[in-house]
Design goal:
5 helices; Arc Repressor Mutant, subunit A; two-stranded antiparallel ribbon; alpha+beta; 3-stranded antiparallel beta sheet; single chain
Length: 138
């Protein structure tokens, strides 16, 4: 068989390297299984962040209400909400024919606590660096 190997999986998981002609398999980008990474992966998208902001400002809403404020289609809003739900950021309850979405404050509080821990570590590291530089100056 001549030429580069043919991909055996979906084309979205393959890319051509810059310096070779052969296709190289790459792992598709997926949200981590659990923990802060999943939460921040979900919040990394501007549209999902806008949905979180809308739910925060206007309270629980249907997909229709969220789509009115969003620059994307109703179907896209539904998909973004599914990602937020998987990350534990938003949940929904059936109300008649609609699902009403709301934020899970505990999950957002966990994100806030995680960022606070990181911030304190950086503050401590900067303080140690400053002390080291002052000691070195003497």
């Amino acid at each position: 068989m001549d030429g580069p190997p043919r991909p055996t999986s979906s084309p979205s998981t393959w890319r051509a390297p810059h310096d070779a002609k052969a296709a190289v398999p790459t792992a598709p980008l997926r949200a981590p299984a659990a923990g802060p990474a999943r939460l921040f992966t979900a919040l990394a998208d501007d549209n999902r962040l806008a949905i979180v902001e809308s739910l925060s400002e206007h309270g629980p809403q249907s997909i229709t209400a969220l789509a009115r404020r969003a620059p994307v289609t109703r179907q896209a809003v539904r998909k973004h909400l599914a990602v937020l739900e998987t990350a534990g950021i938003a949940t929904s309850k059936r109300h008649g024919r609609e699902r009403i979405w709301h934020l899970e404050p505990g999950r957002l509080a966990a994100a806030h606590a995680y960022l606070d821990r990181i911030s304190h570590r950086w503050d401590d590291a900067i303080d140690r660096l400053g002390a080291y530089l002052e000691k070195d100056r003497e």
